Amino acid sequence: MHDDAVGREQDAQGSGAKGSLARKWLPSAAEVVWLAGATRTRAAGAGETDESPASGDIGPAGTDADADRSPAPAGERPPERERPPDAPTEPAPLPDQMPPPTRDSDTPTPDPSGASELPPGEPEAPRDAASDQHDADEEDERDESEATAFELPDTLPILPLKDTVVYPFAVVPLGVGKDRSKRLIDDAMRGARLVGLVAQKDADIEHAGPADCFRIGTVARIARLLRMPDGTIQVIVQGLDRIAIEDYTEEDPFLRAHVRLAPETTESDTETEALKRNAIVLFQRMVSLVQYLPNELAVNALNLDDAREVVYLIASSVQMELELRQQLLELDSVRAKLEKITPFLNRELEVLELGKKIQSQAQEEMGKAQREYFLREQLKAIQKELGEESDEAATINQLRDKIAEAHLPEEAAKEAQRELARLEKLP
After folding, report:
1. Coil, strand or helix: which one is 31?
2. Higher-confidence residue: 381 or 297?
3. Rounded to an integer, what distance in angstroms lies between the CA atom of residue 318 and that of residue 120?
4. Which of 9, 55, 248, 386 is 20 to 30 A from 164 via CA?
5. What distance in Å separates the CA atoms of residue 260 and residue 246, rounded to the nearest whole number?
6. pLDDT tens track for 97-154
7. Is 139 exposed, middle or buried (0-12, 13-18, 19+ CB in 10 A)?
């Protein structure tokens, strides 16, 4: 083992290496293993033998170190070899004992997350849930304001709707199939994507003109457009504000008109607040009774502060006649809108609660009849198993015997048996 290190040193000297590099003592991997075994042996004490590598495990084949190597006797350490004066006196550490590589303290370690580092000595300011929620609310309000902000042009394309009234703040899907309506949508998509939505007075009219449409409608933005394989267009529009049509400028290829904004009058008195809260309570009861209304609508209505938004949310969700829908849109006062929709909600709740009561009674009667039928059938089965016969069964058997003894004609016997079977099925 030691001869191997000497041989490597002689090779380095013979190859023309500098003196300082040749005098450096470098232990081999086998010497590290032997030194570790020797250390463990000295720590354990007498009774154990030192481990030494076998001949031929160290040194390349054909070298002088390989030729001069001889195995050491058992229990004896190999003879010490001369080390250079500047050789270390302690054995080299094991690989698992090597100290970790040092990094230059002047070079900052990059943050894998990409976050910027704070100046030294300045701690990062903690963030709580309230701050995060405040930032999220501000971002939502900013997105909502950007989505609803618009500039009304001089003229606006007018899209007549059948049996539909689109309110401000409402997001409604619409199907477009007529050629002139599709041209209107394409023209709007090339601009600000704004359209005027008005309801037709008569849904049976295929090509509605200016006289066939109401004068009060809603300006809406096309939020999404999807072209279907059958040639129709599905659009999702978002109502922005109420408009009034002043005059029509074009009728071909589609309707276009001068419009103006027609904002409502919002009262902020106690009566309006009471009407708003009462409408929300009635709407929540209605949602609990109607299957086609999701529970999220009641939660949304409860969290609305604007009375106008409450009215339009309720009117967009429930089923009502076109005339009442248009009246709610045309009323200028928000309080008047609440006074108009409250009687409708009360009437609908009475009908829904009465229908629920009738349905409960019918289900209860049906359940009672079914229970009685099952009990009678179980009683018959028990009596049959016990060999007993009820009074009804005894009477029916007597009648059957009398019919057989009467020797009636064939038609009369069939009719008698039919009536007897009906009597047997009676409870």
Report:
1. helix
2. 297
3. 61
4. 248
5. 7
6. 455 544 444 444 444 444 444 455 545 555 556 666 656 556 655 555 555 677 888 8
7. exposed
Q: What phi and psi values does residue 108 have, to the nearest 5 degrees?
A: -70, 145
Specify whether the CB–CB gap between 178 and 159 falls below 8 A.
no
Parallel, antiparallel, or unpaired for β 194-199 and 216-227?
Answer: antiparallel
Report which of 262, 219, 255, 213 is spatially closest to residue 238, judged by C-alpha positions.
219
**What sign does the CA torsion over 206, 209, 211, 215 have?**
positive
CA-atom Rg of the chain in angstroms: 49
Q: Worst-scoring range by mean pLDDT, 100-104, 237-241, 293-297, 378-382?
A: 100-104
| Of 261, 266, 343, residue with least CA distance to 309 | 266
Tokens of 56: 């031929």
What CA–CA distance (Å, rounded) separates 66 from 60?
7
Question: What is the SS3 assignment for 241?
Answer: strand
Q: Contact 118/124 with Cβ under 8 angstroms?
A: yes
With a CB cutoff of 8 Å and minimum separation 6, the contacts of 377 are: none
CB-count exposure of residue 105 (10 Å: 0-12, 13-18, 19+): exposed
Residue 180 CB partners (closer than 8 Å, separation 6+): 207, 252, 253, 254
The DSSP output letter for 97 is G
CA-CA distance, 331 to 308, in Å (whole number)? 11
Residue 381 to residue 232: CA distance in whole angstroms? 64
Residue type, 270: T
- Give 344's contacts (C-beta < 8 A, 6+ positions apart): 318, 320, 324
Structure tokens at 112: 């894998």
Specify the pLDDT at position 362. 80
Contact 307, 275 (CB under 8 A): yes
Per the CB < 8 A criterion, the answer to whether 223 and 143 are in contact is: no
pLDDT at 359: 80
Q: Which residues pair with 243 in a beta bridge?
A: 217, 261
pLDDT tens-place string over residues 317-347: 999 999 999 999 999 999 999 999 999 999 9
Indicate if the pLDDT at residue 289 is higher than 50.
Answer: yes
